[in-house]
């Protein structure tokens, strides 16, 4: 089945290629393994393989290499073999490199060095199976199209030969049944009647959601499978469908066993005579890996909080939403008091641990749907939350200052306290004030942060 396939591995270090050879050789029956040290040679080899009629289902490439980086190499090979699944290996994480590989080479997976052997093999097996699945469906589509065209021509030419025509139609039905079985096994499909009750769920849909068919058929689609969605999101979906329109979007679902996964979902009305709604069909595409890579690009690696890049877009978005909804917003910016003295005396590794503990506290303290916490640089953090009134914002700011000190992280060289403390600048955004920009809010919070420092630190200033 795989005798025409070649997995291409590219790394400038011979020892890495030897390791890949040892761990991958013989793992994928019939698949040839090509190991290339020179990335320019890899591009040429890819052209030669395609010219020979070979297929390249998977490309594994190091990121840090002489000349071009791995994202550029993957982009070049993607142009030659656009259906190949691309996997990037590196011991040095680069958000720009990952982002470039996503945008230019349709990156399938990013794996850090040193890799986990089982994770590497499972990833490549999944990539190979994904490639084979797509190729199978594409081939089945082509075969089905060719078959239908042939049947139409035969019906025209042999209208008198009813017995032969019926035999050919029976053969076509068997092929369609096989094709539908492929769809059932590999495509996440669910059908719902007009009342929102599930009437069909594909085997692939059941596997991903974790439910048996018997647990789905006859139950409400929205309230069985959308239990973790907000009421507002459910109302948006139902309102679109009630208008006879197609709804689509990205949703984070929760499987029966509690695992979260992301899908791009399209729900379309099944129309009779272009007007009467008989029911609905939902088709999902699992995008969990894609969302994981996206999350990597907006997350601070040390603390797990959102990073400065995400901060700019979120603050602008939330300012607009709060203004339209007539809601109060509280924006707090703080940094650790005398953090340079801490690093100088305890070491940077200890300083990183302090930042991690603060990140853990922020993630625990701010868990509501529209609470956002960021590390915006060095020892500087930001918090953005909805509040009902100014007093709630001040209470929250005072509580955060106290909570950081209550972590009891020793700082014997601080003139403020024997524990780690913070200085915080608080900017309230009223629904009645004129529209403000991200830069205005940031600058005003920063000014108040420095006033808090000048006032003695370990406090907030509004």
UniProtKB/TrEMBL annotation:
It catalyses: 2 GTP = 3',3'-c-di-GMP + 2 diphosphate. The modification 4-aspartylphosphate is found at residue 62. Residues 327-462 form the GGDEF domain. PROSITE patterns: GGDEF (PS50887), PAC (PS50113), PAS (PS50112), RESPONSE_REGULATORY (PS50110). This is diguanylate cyclase. Its EC number is 2.7.7.65. The lineage of its organism: Bacteria, Pseudomonadati, Pseudomonadota, Gammaproteobacteria, Chromatiales. It holds the Pfam family GGDEF.
């Amino acid at each position: 089945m795989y005798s025409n396939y070649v997995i291409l591995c590219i790394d400038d270090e011979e020892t890495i290629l030897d390791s890949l050879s040892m761990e991958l050789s013989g793992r994928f029956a019939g698949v040839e393994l090509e190991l290339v040290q020179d990335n320019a040679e890899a591009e040429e080899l890819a052209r030669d393989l395609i010219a020979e009629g070979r297929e390249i289902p998977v490309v594994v490439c190091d990121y840090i290499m002489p000349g071009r980086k791995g994202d550029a190499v993957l982009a070049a090979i993607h142009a030659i073999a656009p259906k190949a699944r691309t996997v990037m290996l590196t011991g040095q994480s680069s958000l720009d490199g990952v982002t470039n590989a996503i945008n230019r080479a349709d990156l399938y997976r990013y794996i850090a060095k040193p890799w986990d052997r089982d994770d590497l093999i499972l990833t490549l097996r999944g990539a190979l199976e994904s490639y084979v699945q797509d190729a199978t469906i594409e081939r089945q589509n082509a075969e089905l199209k060719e078959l239908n065209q042939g049947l139409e021509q035969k019906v025209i030419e042999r209208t008198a030969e009813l017995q032969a025509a019926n035999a050919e139609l029976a053969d076509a039905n068997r092929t369609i049944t096989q094709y539908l079985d492929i769809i059932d096994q590999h495509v996440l499909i669910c059908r719902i009647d007009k009342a929102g009750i599930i009437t069909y769920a594909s085997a692939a849909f059941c596997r991903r959601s974790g439910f048996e068919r018997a647990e789905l058929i006859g139950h409400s689609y929205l309230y069985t499978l959308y239990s973790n969605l907000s009421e507002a999101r459910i109302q948006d979906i139902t309102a679109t469908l009630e208008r006879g329109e197609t709804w689509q979007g990205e949703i984070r679902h929760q499987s029966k066993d509690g695992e979260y996964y992301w899908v791009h979902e399209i729900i379309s009305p099944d129309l009779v005579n272009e007007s009467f709604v008989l029911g609905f069909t939902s088709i999902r595409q699992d995008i969990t890996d894609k969302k994981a890579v996206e999350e990597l690009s907006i997350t601070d690696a040390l603390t797990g909080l959102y990073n400065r890049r995400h901060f700019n877009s979120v603050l602008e978005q939330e300012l607009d939403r709060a203004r339209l909804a007539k809601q109060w917003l509280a924006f707090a910016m703080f940094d650790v008091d005398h953090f340079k003295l801490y690093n100088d005396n305890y070491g940077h590794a200890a300083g990183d641990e302090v930042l991690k503990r603060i990140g853990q506290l922020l993630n625990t303290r701010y868990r509501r749907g529209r609470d956002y916490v960021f590390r915006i640089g060095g020892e500087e953090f930001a918090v953005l939350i909805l509040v009902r009134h100014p007093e709630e914002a001040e209470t929250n700011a005072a509580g955060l200052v106290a909570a950081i000190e209550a972590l009891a992280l020793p700082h014997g060289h601080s003139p403020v306290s024997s524990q780690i403390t913070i200085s915080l600048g608080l900017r309230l955004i009223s629904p009645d004030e004129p529209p403000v920009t991200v830069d205005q809010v940031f600058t005003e919070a920063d000014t108040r942060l420095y006033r808090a420092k000048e006032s003695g630190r370990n406090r907030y200033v509004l």
